Amino acid sequence: MEDQATQTPVETGKEPQAFSMEQALQDAEARLEKTVQRGQIVTGTVVFVTNDGVMVDIGARTEAVIPFNQLTEENLSEEELKNLLKPGDTVTAYVVRADLENGQVVLSKKRAEADQSWVKIQALYEQGEPVMVQVKEKVKGGLVATIEGLRAFLPASQVDLKRTPELDEYVGQSFLVKIIELNRKKGRIILSRRTVLEAEQKAARSRILASLKEGDIVEGQVVEVTDFGVFVALGGVDGLVHRSEITWGRFNHPKDVVQKGQTVKAKVLSVDTERERVNLSMKALSQDPWLTVSEKYPVGSRLIGKVVGLTQFGAFVEVEPGLEGLIHISELSWTKRPKHPGEILKEGQEVEAQVLRIDPEERRLSLGLKQTQPDPWKSLPDRYPPGTPVKGKVTGLTDFGVFVEIEPGIEGLIHVSELAYERVEKPSEIFKKGDEVEAAILQIDPVEQRISLSRKRLLPPPAHAVSIPGGEEGEGRKNRREGKEGERPKRSKSKGGAREGRSRDHDYEYGMGGGAASYTNYDPSVVATSNTNVKLGDVFGDLLSQLALEEDKDKEKA
């Protein structure tokens, strides 16, 4: 025994410990004098573990106990709690109860850790720095996460940039959050992941806006399609492609051209860093078709297009995306006179047209549909020479004449002076629409698309028009012989005779818009002249009149 008590430090392998009665007394006095109060944070050494808790030497006259339920916030089993601390471990705890006289000191390890966590959390909250947390569970209205060992609440509205109804997928995840509300008295800690994401997004937008410049070609995904344009994601910032910059072609809604989720390329038109706006153009990546329209579609050439619009004055035809031409209503048909282009064309119909006029500066292209068909007016003079009798139905009645359709869509005008030998005041009293009328061709103007007809040239002349002796002719000669002061009396003309009809000016005008006559353009004071005699009676009437004049001259000489 003596040998064992006198072992040297070298033999035991331990450092020599200076221990004296004086030191022991000082230590005992210090323990007696040390006071412990509720709310203190003390540090001690684990002595042993019992079935009720962990005994800790805190340097007081009595040892303190940490109950198992005050060890940690984690939900551990009794066996795990017993193995959480071992004799000799240093532990920091919060004094829950201090009764040294009765030898009762109760500590709380988790309360001390919470105090330290609150100090750290307070510092994070004041600094505004993000902190990493792990989501523990889903609760009503949001998620629960731990931060420095304390429970904190993450509302559903603060989980992401957009409210997410399903939160189960976030359980177990770790991500950065920001403390937006802190109340230690109520033990309330409110977190926000959305604030962190917004800050990251803003930083990304700033970087992108700083890197973009006018004229850059960018690529992005369509995130939204609206009536006024398309939004394209450019990695943190959305650029707008206005509907006028989507394509050169015509469309009703932007969704007819692009769809959400589609990847597109565009050209940067402008960048507003202050308002964080980027204007893009998709059509700028393709050439303006009006720049080459004169070379690709010269005047006189024919092209194929699609009818994309019908208006009161004509039809719009899309030749290629961004290039449209107009077929005026007057250029639809040689013979028809439509009130609306829809009578001839339908929207969506593919048609062949001829280029009539091009104005690239005004972006106008005039097309003709009837020019792709033979012009029936060119062959009319050959098929209907002057004097040719024709038959047709009355299509229109005016005060100055009657319009007659001699071929489908082709009309001619019988002037009132050519309706009959007698004077006709109102053609509507004699004819009505749909009546069949026979007439003779007087003149055809294929350029102006006008046809002059005569009905009276196919009628027999009145009987008195060829009578020479007696009557008005005899009286006329007598009056001339008995004229005062040698004045030769005027010769009386046969009323309604062929000569009277030829002496009038027949140079009237009437429009034939779209291959048919236009009644409103007619001037009734002017009548067209005809140099053709189509009735044998007219020839005899002229000869007899000339003979009568020669006879009068011979008698005067005698």
Automatic annotation (TrEMBL):
Q: Which domain of life is it from?
A: Bacteria
Q: Which SMART domains match?
A: S1
Q: Which GO terms describe its biological process?
A: translation
Q: Which keywords label this protein?
A: Repeat, Ribonucleoprotein, Ribosomal protein, RNA-binding
**Disordered, as annotated region:** 455-524
InterPro entries reported for this sequence? NA-bd_OB-fold, Ribos_protein_bS1-like, Ribosomal_protein_S1-like, S1_domain
The Gene Ontology terms for molecular function here are: mRNA binding; structural constituent of ribosome
Q: What's an example GO cellular component term for this entry?
A: ribosome
Q: What family does the Swiss-Prot or TrEMBL record give for this protein?
A: Belongs to the bacterial ribosomal protein bS1 family.
UniProt function note: Binds mRNA; thus facilitating recognition of the initiation point. It is needed to translate mRNA with a short Shine-Dalgarno (SD) purine-rich sequence.
What protein does this entry describe?
Small ribosomal subunit protein bS1
Which source organism?
A: Meiothermus taiwanensis
Q: In the UniProt record, what gene is named as encoding this protein?
A: rpsA
